[in-house]
């Protein structure tokens, strides 16, 4: 994501609608543990979801299937998402914020469906089948996160009518179908009936390395389309199949409100639009479907997609040195926050931008600056 975690990084991928995995902020360290917040016990006791099925299995009944109740009770305030189904748009590998969010939701008991950028679909599914991601799929109880189904998705296109001929005939899209936002939502409805959680973890700025003054109109609009409007489109088409009381989240970055030199191509504008849209969508989706809408402003993390920015390592170093909490920011910390925001524990939180950046957003001065370092 912009460091937006997914958003930022992913945003940089070559084509719009790159997965959040690409999400520019995948964690540098393997996301191996999900220590859910709020004093909850490690979710080792959460039972497996009865409706889960292996990757590529046949479609399920349109009637929502509920999870089997677990035996015993956990202490404190556990994040319990058993019986909930999540669709996560923007997962193409195992080192981005989208993946970390999927793990946190799975550890809390949710059933996981993902949408993967079409050109990355074959590699992602092959890696899953061959066990390449098995180590990073491990949940707190020792089991492996199960992705019930992977859907092809290019959120830059709302419906088949919007897809240009050169994309339809592109070999990277060969063999895939029903990958526009509208078609993906219809297919999820047909196969699973409904969802409870919608996650937008994708973005792209084809000219992200260019200063704003050098960004073309097409590059600027492409960034807005892939990184901001894609969230509007996803919520528009999935809202009709979301159960009342559900929640949606996206990933943003502080470049939306502060100047980040080098983070160009209109991506800062796209993030600002995403945060503004979050407030409006919270009102509209709340009134129309009783759905909560929030966004997470994540700090910089070194995912593969984030490297497209060109200086992600420097951003990470700057954050470490200047943030109030001087520690590495891990992808699972963003995942934990997402699990909280879509859970009943956050039932009164909507329209908010939640910062998960070790507090960097609160700083007005760089403490490593020679100008102020002598005062500290």
TrEMBL record:
<comment type="similarity">
    <text>Belongs to the short-chain dehydrogenases/reductases (SDR) family. FabI subfamily.</text>
</comment>
<keyword id="KW-0560">Oxidoreductase</keyword>
<keyword id="KW-0444">Lipid biosynthesis</keyword>
<comment type="pathway">
    <text>Lipid metabolism; fatty acid biosynthesis.</text>
</comment>
<dbReference type="GO" id="GO:0004318">
    <property type="term" value="F:enoyl-[acyl-carrier-protein] reductase (NADH) activity"/>
</dbReference>
<protein>
    <recommendedName>
        <fullName>enoyl-[acyl-carrier-protein] reductase (NADH)</fullName>
        <ecNumber>1.3.1.9</ecNumber>
    </recommendedName>
</protein>
<keyword id="KW-0520">NAD</keyword>
<keyword id="KW-0276">Fatty acid metabolism</keyword>
<keyword id="KW-0443">Lipid metabolism</keyword>
<dbReference type="GO" id="GO:0009507">
    <property type="term" value="C:chloroplast"/>
</dbReference>
<dbReference type="InterPro" id="IPR002347">
    <property type="entry name" value="SDR_fam"/>
</dbReference>
<keyword id="KW-0275">Fatty acid biosynthesis</keyword>
<dbReference type="GO" id="GO:0006633">
    <property type="term" value="P:fatty acid biosynthetic process"/>
</dbReference>
<keyword id="KW-0934">Plastid</keyword>
<keyword id="KW-0150">Chloroplast</keyword>
<comment type="function">
    <text>Catalyzes the NAD-dependent reduction of a carbon-carbon double bond in an enoyl moiety that is covalently linked to an acyl carrier protein (ACP). Catalyzes the last reduction step in the de novo synthesis cycle of fatty acids. Involved in the elongation cycle of fatty acids which are used in lipid metabolism. Required for normal plant growth.</text>
</comment>
<dbReference type="Pfam" id="PF13561">
    <property type="entry name" value="adh_short_C2"/>
</dbReference>
<comment type="subunit">
    <text>Homotetramer.</text>
</comment>
<keyword id="KW-0809">Transit peptide</keyword>
<dbReference type="InterPro" id="IPR036291">
    <property type="entry name" value="NAD(P)-bd_dom_sf"/>
</dbReference>
<dbReference type="InterPro" id="IPR014358">
    <property type="entry name" value="Enoyl-ACP_Rdtase_NADH"/>
</dbReference>
């Amino acid at each position: 994501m912009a460091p937006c975690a997914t958003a930022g990084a992913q945003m940089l991928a070559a084509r719009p609608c790159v997965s959040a995995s690409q999400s520019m902020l995948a964690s540098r360290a393997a996301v191996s543990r999900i220590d859910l917040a709020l004093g909850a016990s490690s979710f080792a006791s959460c039972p497996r979801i009865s409706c889960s099925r292996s990757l590529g299995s046949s479609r399920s009944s349109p009637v929502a299937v509920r999870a089997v109740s677990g035996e015993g009770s956990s202490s404190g305030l556990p994040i319990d998402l058993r019986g909930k189904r999540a669709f996560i748009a923007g997962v193409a590998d195992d080192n981005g914020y989208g993946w970390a969010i999927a793990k946190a939701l799975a550890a809390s008991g949710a059933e996981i469906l993902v949408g993967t950028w079409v050109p990355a679909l074959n590699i992602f599914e092959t890696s899953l089948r061959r066990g390449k991601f098995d180590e990073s799929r491990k949940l707190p109880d020792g089991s492996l996160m199960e992705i019930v189904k992977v859907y092809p998705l290019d959120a830059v296109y709302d419906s088949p009518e919007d897809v240009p001929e050169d994309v339809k005939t592109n070999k990277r899209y060969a063999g895939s179908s029903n990958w526009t936002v509208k078609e993906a939502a219809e297919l999820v409805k047909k196969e699973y009936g409904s969802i409870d959680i919608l996650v937008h973890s994708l973005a792209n700025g084809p000219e992200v390395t260019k200063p704003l003054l050098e960004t073309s109109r097409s590059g600027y609009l492409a960034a807005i389309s892939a990184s901001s409007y894609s969230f509007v489109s996803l919520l528009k088409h999935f809202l009709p199949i979301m159960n009342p009381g559900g929640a949606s989240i996206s990933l943003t970055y502080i470049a939306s409100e502060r100047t980040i030199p080098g983070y160009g191509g209109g991506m800062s504008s796209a993030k600002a639009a995403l945060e503004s849209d979050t407030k409006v969508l919270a009102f509209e989706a709340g009134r129309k479907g009783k759905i909560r809408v929030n966004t997470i402003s994540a700090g910089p993390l070194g995912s593969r997609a984030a490297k497209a920015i060109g200086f992600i390592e420097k951003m990470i170093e700057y954050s470490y040195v200047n943030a109030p909490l001087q520690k590495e920011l891990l992808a699972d910390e963003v995942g934990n926050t997402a699990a909280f925001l879509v859970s009943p524990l956050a039932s009164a939180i909507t329209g908010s931008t939640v910062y998960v950046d070790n507090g960097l957003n609160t700083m007005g001065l760089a403490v490593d600056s020679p100008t102020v370092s002598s005062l500290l």
